[in-house]
């Protein structure tokens, strides 16, 4: 049997991530059932998928003639049992609430035969905790897609102590077949791989602002015009090997005692949230943001990702 073969995919949760994940599989030729409790979310989904695929087609990343067929592969329903009927592969994309996710997995475990792979798209939560109420824990696995999932190739496949290794391998094969770049996270730890790295950087960035070393704009410039330029090609551990682990050790002996090591969120971050300075949504965070500035930032991200994907990165 072809490990990557999947006849029917079900996506549970019709929010931004759920619709994006449904689009990924529909664009790859799979029939997809998208389930959400709210009909209005499902009513928006086909238009969102069509808009995203048309945008990709305009940039040469999807065939314009294939847009209608891809949209047509997605059916929507408010009925979870109907969505997973006959599904080989199920991806939960509901709100990041542990009790809600556990309830969904308890339902999925009953509704799906034991051979159906059950995935959760949580970004930080324990996969084992999410699947705690499932009887067939051996088929529960994490699949953390990154937003927007139709542009960012990475999917973190997260193992639990109970998962069958064959389920992990099949999941990775299915994701590769759908055009994604899955990585194997061997332990079910908070934040998995990429979010642990990302938030370690954010903690130090916030600390630099908090301690008056540089302002927020300067911190961002230091990444954009320095190490951020080479990260897609020369990632951290390859860089360490390139400069030599002896030099890396010497640098760490000197600098690590001076880096932020708090196990608590920054006091500056807490104060900003308490004051209602939440970033784009309120117009002020670490920097000031007009609606025009926020929209421009979002556009820059999408344009950059389109250029990277169009340049052959995967």
What key phrases describe this protein's structure?
about 325 residues, alpha/beta, Rossmann fold, N-(1-d-carboxylethyl)-l-norvaline Dehydrogenase, domain 2, 3 domains, eight-stranded mixed beta sheet, 14 helices
Strand content: 5-15%
**Could you tell me the number of beta strands?**
8
The first-level CATH class of the largest domain is given as: Alpha Beta
Instruction: Output the CATH topology of the largest domain.
Output: Rossmann fold
The helix-strand sequence is EHEHHEHEHEHEEHEHHHHHHH
Quaternary status = single chain
- The low-confidence runs, each spanning 5 or more residues with pLDDT under 50, are none
Describe what this molecule looks like in 3D.
- The model has no long low-confidence stretch (mean pLDDT 95).
- The protein is globular, with a radius of gyration of 21 Å.
- With 314 residues, it is an alpha/beta fold.
- The chain folds into 3 domains: 8-185, 3-Layer(aba) Sandwich (Rossmann fold), CATH 3.40.50.720; 193-265, N-(1-d-carboxylethyl)-l-norvaline Dehydrogenase, domain 2, CATH 1.10.1040; 276-314.
- The chain contains 14 helices and 8 strands.
- It has an 8-stranded mixed sheet with strand order 3-2-1-4-5-6-7-8, sandwiched between helices.
